[in-house]
Amino acid sequence: MASIWVGERVRLRGGEPDEWQQLALEFDQDSTVMRNAGALHPPRSKASYLQWAESKVGTQDDDTFSLGIESLSEGRLVGWLGTTDVDKNAGVFSYGITIGGDFHRSGYASEAINLLLRYMFGERRFQKCDVDMYAYNTARMKLHEKLGFIEEGRRRRRQFFAGAHHDLVLMGMTVEEYAEVHSLGSVESA
């Protein structure tokens, strides 16, 4: 049985509150991961993490959702991604993704993003995906360029971290640009 949610390295799946809570606790120990996600905040209580985690597994629909990224080789949650800023009228969406520092450069992010884009473009009829990232996060910029995203602009001095202001880079990809490089999937007959 084939699943649109499974790649060679990762499976996208729902998560349970205790998994999300544990992952958030791990991520919050890494200031770089938190800054790249746009929110370096003071340490939180376990109760606060549980409340946040329960919101991640709450009501979702086919276009607005959060998914866990599970490593197929380890069978463990290594990150999450979720759609944001979904505009059904314009056919545009965005997403956020976070991979734990111990799992960077393993191909998990690129495969998870590709699975998400294939679903949103090939199954939900969205025509464009917008993402943004801080200019200092060159690894994320290179990843998105490799996936086919194009830089569309910058918001100068958008965020303040580590004693300095940082630009926010805006990137986008249309369904046509995606389809030039990646498969939108296929319908297999039984």
TrEMBL record:
Organism, scientific name: Actinopolymorpha pittospori
Domain spans labelled N-acetyltransferase: 10-176
Name this polypeptide is given: RimJ/RimL family protein N-acetyltransferase
PANTHER family xrefs: FAMILY ACETYLTRANSFERASE, PUTATIVE (AFU_ORTHOLOGUE AFUA_7G00850)-RELATED (PTHR43441:SF2), RIBOSOMAL-PROTEIN-SERINE ACETYLTRANSFERASE (PTHR43441)
Entry's Gene Ontology molecular function annotations: protein N-terminal-serine acetyltransferase activity; protein-N-terminal-alanine acetyltransferase activity
SUPFAM superfamilies: Acyl-CoA N-acyltransferases (Nat)
Entry's Gene Ontology cellular component terms: cytoplasm
Coiled-coil residue windows: none
Pfam families in UniProt: Acetyltransf_3 (PF13302)
Signal peptide residues on this chain, from the entry's feature table: none
Matches recorded under InterPro entries: Acyl_CoA_acyltransferase, GNAT_dom, Ribosomal_N-acetyltransferase
